Amino acid sequence: MLKTLTYCIMHMSVAITVVYLLSGSWVIATGIGMVEPLVQTVFYHLHERLWKSAETTPGGREDISNAGTTLAYAR
Q: pTM value?
């Protein structure tokens, strides 16, 4: 959860700065710059949980086949 919190803080800082540079308004920058990262943080947290679940459940990522790939080895 700490990783998610630090990601949220970083994302808010970047979003507020970018929106301010584009709009020139701190009010708009703060509004958009706080809402968008909060929404993204929720989805990031859900993505991390789903990803971890896929790694540890049968049929998860470790069961993905390499069929159709070509590997070349230098000798």
A: 0.53
